[in-house]
Amino acid sequence: MKLKIIITFLFTIGLFLIPFNKVEVLPFLGEFRNESSIVFFLLAFFVLIIYYWLSGKIHLPFKNNLFQLVLMFIIWCLLSTVFNFFDIRFYYFKQTDGITRFIKQYISLIISGLVCFNLYWFVLKDKRNDEILKYIRKIFLYSLIFASIYGSLEIFVSYFKINFFTPLFNLLSHLPFLNNNIYNTGRISSVSQEPPFLAIYLITIASWMFSYIITSKSKFRFLPTIAIIVLTFFSGSRTALAIVSIQFIIFIYFLYSIFGYKKLIFNSFKIAFFCLAIGFVIFGSKFYDAINEKVKSLNFVENMTSSISNKSRFGMQYTSLLVFSENPILGVGLGQQAFVAKDKYPDWATEDNYEFEHYYLNENNTSFPPSFNLYTRILAELGIIGFIIFVYLEFLIIKNTLTLLKKDNTFLGKVLAINLLISFIGLFINWLQFDSFRIYGVWIFIAILIIYQKNYEQNSRINSSL
């Protein structure tokens, strides 16, 4: 019993620290080296191993179709690499051979899809749906409060150049897992390493914060939503701005169609208009310039040709598809895309592009070039078979969540289903420009969805027997 308490405590700390990835904490863990939360998740998992050893039981949902697909995908990652072994053993790029690259990437996938997933499942499996909703959302809220305070100070210091807040900002930066890196462009990253990582965090928790509007009667119930919008706006992330907007529109749709909160929707827009008006009054042209800049940033057609970053992104994605076209069935093996792609990047992406010269094709820079799109990466590395497994997993996740939303007649059950659905949609869209499986929210929410299904089926059987 004490071990369960320790495991839950460590998980809670890890959940709170999800957005904290500014400093290197575990350099030997590759892409997890800056992830503060992984320290506590791994500690919790080690305690969980002791619990399994003492109890003689391993708790995992082996009979669930979603978990079976996760296992199938992980197995295919191994098989695809085995089938390509004779090519992989000769690969060498950025002082790394193909086999070493596979081992690192496979360990990363195992940590996300099995190790951490096992922890999430164990901590939450005995909770009711309403308990899961309140527990997860409360931790997300506490995390957002800290990120908002730190992010607000960063906005005042970096964007509005109000030096009065600099001492306090520097003081908070001495806390564990933080440092005071400031972007000259005025973008903020809050407690995260870079604005894109802040964007992933905001996309992960957005719907959970929106749902306070429905479930809370407090006059402060709009503040979490406002915090999400403000941090998204000043992060400067076009992806976050687009996806969080989509998530909010979906939430408004459910707010109207399921709960019929017409008055609440109207009041929400009044509050948003009031906040904009206050911003214009206090900060004047600076606030107008910020809005105008964000609107222009959403012109993807213009930015595609004028932005070095976008040239790199589209070049990487295009090259991944080239690799897939040459290896359509099996792919080239997990983690091997960069070895094959390095000689295939198109001239329109590499010419006059310092990112390729200094980073992506520079042998002295040991960081591997990103693919900037998980779906094109899967096509290149795992072929059409791996892609079908992965996309079918996503399809079933959305389908099962929609089914629960339709069938569950409980108020908090519907809120939980909406939170999961909007979160999945946002994170799946985000994978169009992010190529790592290392998104905690996806695996946490899959565990929650499986538990939700189990609880709903049990309650249905009980009700039918009565």
From TrEMBL:
User: Which PANTHER family does the record associate with it?
Assistant: O-ANTIGEN LIGASE (PTHR37422:SF17), TEICHURONIC ACID BIOSYNTHESIS PROTEIN TUAE (PTHR37422)
Q: Which domain of life is it from?
A: Bacteria
O-antigen ligase-related domain: residues covered? 226-391
Q: Which residues form the signal peptide?
A: none
Membrane-topology descriptor = Multi-pass membrane protein
Q: What's a Pfam family in this record? A: Wzy_C
Cellular localization per UniProt:
Membrane
What protein does this entry describe?
A: Oligosaccharide repeat unit polymerase
Q: Where are the transmembrane segments?
A: 38-54, 66-86, 106-124, 139-160, 196-213, 220-236, 242-259, 271-288, 378-398, 410-431, 437-452
Q: Which InterPro entries match?
A: O-antigen_ligase-rel_domated (IPR007016), WaaL-like (IPR051533)
Q: What UniProt keywords apply to this chain's record, in alphabetical order?
A: Membrane, Transmembrane, Transmembrane helix
